[in-house]
From TrEMBL:
<dbReference type="Pfam" id="PF03466">
    <property type="entry name" value="LysR_substrate"/>
</dbReference>
<comment type="similarity">
    <text>Belongs to the LysR transcriptional regulatory family.</text>
</comment>
<dbReference type="InterPro" id="IPR000847">
    <property type="entry name" value="LysR_HTH_N"/>
</dbReference>
<dbReference type="InterPro" id="IPR050950">
    <property type="entry name" value="HTH-type_LysR_regulators"/>
</dbReference>
<keyword id="KW-0804">Transcription</keyword>
<dbReference type="InterPro" id="IPR005119">
    <property type="entry name" value="LysR_subst-bd"/>
</dbReference>
<dbReference type="Pfam" id="PF00126">
    <property type="entry name" value="HTH_1"/>
</dbReference>
<protein>
    <submittedName>
        <fullName>LysR family cyn operon transcriptional activator</fullName>
    </submittedName>
</protein>
<dbReference type="InterPro" id="IPR036390">
    <property type="entry name" value="WH_DNA-bd_sf"/>
</dbReference>
<keyword id="KW-0805">Transcription regulation</keyword>
<dbReference type="InterPro" id="IPR036388">
    <property type="entry name" value="WH-like_DNA-bd_sf"/>
</dbReference>
<keyword id="KW-0238">DNA-binding</keyword>
<feature type="domain" description="HTH lysR-type">
    <location>
        <begin position="1"/>
        <end position="58"/>
    </location>
</feature>
Length: 288
């Protein structure tokens, strides 16, 4: 059994089409079919049901795919371990970041890229739900996100900082002079919130629900700069962490309540190998 065969099998599993899988792997379809057939012969079970040009995974194929993915990931981690011996002269760091962290994260990103110019950095912004799903698929080295829920045993959690939740309103709004605001007051205001799937909207739905309040959510938008533009009109408000607010035309008003502080964490896969570059990034984040 070869790693190459496992890669071919996983690509065919992903696309469920030998022709498309061969094209994605830049090999001929006959080569792909032959390698998968050899793998099936070695395992003595069929991995795919072949129905004309269509393929579907068999039950053994579904079970085997988990172990095939683990083998590929472990082999990749071995390669990363060897690359790390080159003293950060090469490599790649892939990071998932919630939208609320974009301002603070950008500062660390510039600092890291300046200090280690040969390290390629890939950053993906998304909701907590999306980032966690992709982390579990080994798409990221780590993610930065809010987390107050139960902890999964296969993940490693490192507390980064605490963030206050604030009502964001236009700087010319009558509310802009307030030093704090209650959830009851917020419930009576028209708000535009981050898109469903973000931890912020879930957090406030839970917070309002605990007090039997129903918020007046008029819009859901998955882009903070756009939320700010809506807020600047003075007709709507939004709710974000204070780490998100850096626009001079908006004001963040702290929301009353002991539960209005949230924890931003660094989350990674517990068993995954941590590259030296990732550890250096952690060190810089710890200085925030």
């Amino acid at each position: 059994m070869e790693l190459r065969q496992l890669k071919y099998f996983l690509k065919a599993k992903e696309l469920l089409n030998f022709t498309e899988a061969a094209r994605a792997l830049n090999i001929s379809q006959s080569t792909l079919s032959q390698q998968i057939k050899q793998l099936e012969d070695e395992l003595t079970v069929p991995l795919f049901n072949r129905i004309g040009k269509r393929i579907t995974l068999t039950e053994p194929g579904k079970l085997f795919s988990e172990y095939a993915m683990q083998s590929i990931n472990r082999a990749n981690e071995g390669l990363l371990l060897l690359q790390d011996l080159k003293n950060l002269n090469m490599g790649k760091v892939t990071i998932g970041v919630i939208y609320s962290m974009r301002i603070l994260f950008a500062k660390i990103l510039v600092q890291f890229a300046s200090q280690y110019p040969n390290i390629k950095i890939q950053v993906v912004f998304g909701t907590t739900k999306d980032l966690l799903e992709r982390l579990n698929l080994h798409h990221f080295d780590f993610i930065l996100t809010f987390h107050e829920e139960l902890r999964e045993p296969h993940l490693k959690y490192q507390t980064l900082l605490k963030a206050n939740m604030v009502l964001v309103t236009g700087s010319k709004s009558p509310l802009s002079q307030k030093t704090n605001i209650s959830l009851q007051e917020v419930a009576g205001l028209p708000v535009a919130l981050p898109f469903s799937g973000s931890s912020t909207i879930q957090f406030f739905e839970d917070s309002f629900g605990q007090k039997n309040l129903v918020p007046n959510i008029c819009m859901e938008i998955n882009d903070i700069p756009t939320l700010f533009e809506i807020v600047k009109t003075g007709h709507w408000h939004t709710i974000l962490s204070d780490t998100s607010v850096n626009d001079p035309d908006v004001v963040g008003i702290p929301i009353d309540g002991k539960n209005m502080r949230r924890t931003i964490m660094i989350i990674s896969l517990r068993e995954a190998y941590e590259k030296k570059a990732v550890k250096k990034f952690y060190e810089m984040l710890a200085e925030i």
